[in-house]
């Protein structure tokens, strides 16, 4: 099947928003600034919802759940990334003359619990959060649940109930492995599935004023943004606006991606980034966790060297090549690269199918 390039472009925009949003958080912790807060509001208003909605767009929940494929692409990538984090924090502890045993215990517990952020509601004390790869665990649960609900009557009711249970229960206890985040993410996957089923994009194309409505809703959501985080089922004081705004933001980014698709340089660049978004996410997580204790001193040094450049931009510029280099490295690791780059696995399947076909029909042209 031919890839729809503007969807890759949208994922490229979203993964850059993840890195930029985390850079803004670090910069704001170091020195609170309105610019950093605005960037956080923009990035967190759409980036994770977009990934879940697009994942649902390409799902076929009426089929059997593919345990092997989903486990490799989500659970195995989580395990490899967590292992890299443990190696990295051990090296950093050695360089900083700190306890390697303590670092391994704290980060090992974070990896085992699989929480996107620190919480007081965990079943047992967990000092650190594993960070951005909570997405992989949540997506696994969300896909599994949607496959189950799709085979039941009144799927929409089951999806809503799952969201409400995940959201409500997370106010009292935060379960391991991002289970509740996955329960809420089912709704976003289902929206993506429905968008494909009813060809929503074609409808929006025929009724262009919807773009304007979506953009206005997204702006309102950004203005009233107050800490939406799908990682912890936190949708702020206006949860309905947060959810509707994230859907509107996703639609707007897809529209922007369609415009980028018409410009060769922009389209090529962002689509390549989008195709590598899973690898970039994991490489960014490794960098973010391993350097967690050091970023504040790095930001102080960057501010001294470049006092005129916004701190958010400096942090983003420094992180980006590190994350891209890590993603590129994953591309060249045999076998494992197919987990982080699903298109490689598909290409290898096509190549193997071609070889089998040639063996079966050697004279066919």
TrEMBL record:
InterPro entries: Acyl_transf_3_dom, Nod_factor_acetyltransferase. Residues 5-317 form the Acyltransferase domain. GO terms for molecular function: acyltransferase activity, transferring groups other than amino-acyl groups. The chain crosses the membrane at residues 12-30, 36-54, 75-95, 128-145, 152-168, 174-195, 207-225, 237-257. Keywords: Acyltransferase, Membrane, Transferase, Transmembrane, Transmembrane helix. It comes from the Bacteria. It holds the Pfam family Acyl_transf_3. The keyword Transmembrane helix applies. This is Acyltransferase. It comes from Bifidobacterium adolescentis.
């Amino acid at each position: 099947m031919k890839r729809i390039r503007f969807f890759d472009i949208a994922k490229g925009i979203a993964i850059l928003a993840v890195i930029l949003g985390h850079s803004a958080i670090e910069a704001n912790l170091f020195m609170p600034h309105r610019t950093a807060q605005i960037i956080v509001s923009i990035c967190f208003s759409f980036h994770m919802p977009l990934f879940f909605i697009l994942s649902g767009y390409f799902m076929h929940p009426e089929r059997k759940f593919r345990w092997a494929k989903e486990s490799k692409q989500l659970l195995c990538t989580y395990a490899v990334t967590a292992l890299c984090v443990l190696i990295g924090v051990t090296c950093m502890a050695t360089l900083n003359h700190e306890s390697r045993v303590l670092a391994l215990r704290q980060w090992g517990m974070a990896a085992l619990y699989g929480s996107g952020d620190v919480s007081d509601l965990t079943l047992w004390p967990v000092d650190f959060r594993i960070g951005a790869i909570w997405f992989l665990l949540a997506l696994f649960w969300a896909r599994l649940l949607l496959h189950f609900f799709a085979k039941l009557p009144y799927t929409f009711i089951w999806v809503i109930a799952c969201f409400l249970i995940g959201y409500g229960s997370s106010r009292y206890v935060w379960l391991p492995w991002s289970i509740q985040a996955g329960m809420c993410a089912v709704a976003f996957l289902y929206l993506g599935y429905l968008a494909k089923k009813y060809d929503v994009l074609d409808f929006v194309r025929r009724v262009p004023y919807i773009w304007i409505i979506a953009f206005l809703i997204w702006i309102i959501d950004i203005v009233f943004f107050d800490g939406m985080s799908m990682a912890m089922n936190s949708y702020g004081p206006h949860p309905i606006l947060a959810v509707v705004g994230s859907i509107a933001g996703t639609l707007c980014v897809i529209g922007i991606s369609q415009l980028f698709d018409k410009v060769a340089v922009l389209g090529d660049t962002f689509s390549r980034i989008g195709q590598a978004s899973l690898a970039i996410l994991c490489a960014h997580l490794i960098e973010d966790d391993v350097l967690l204790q050091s970023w504040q001193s790095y930001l102080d040094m960057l501010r001294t060297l470049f006092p005129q450049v916004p701190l958010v931009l400096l942090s983003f510029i420094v992180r980006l090549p590190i994350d891209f280099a890590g993603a590129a490295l994953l591309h060249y690791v045999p076998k494992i690269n197919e987990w982080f780059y699903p298109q490689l696995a598909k290409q290898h399947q096509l190549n193997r199918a071609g070889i089998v076909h040639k063996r079966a029909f050697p004279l066919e042209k």
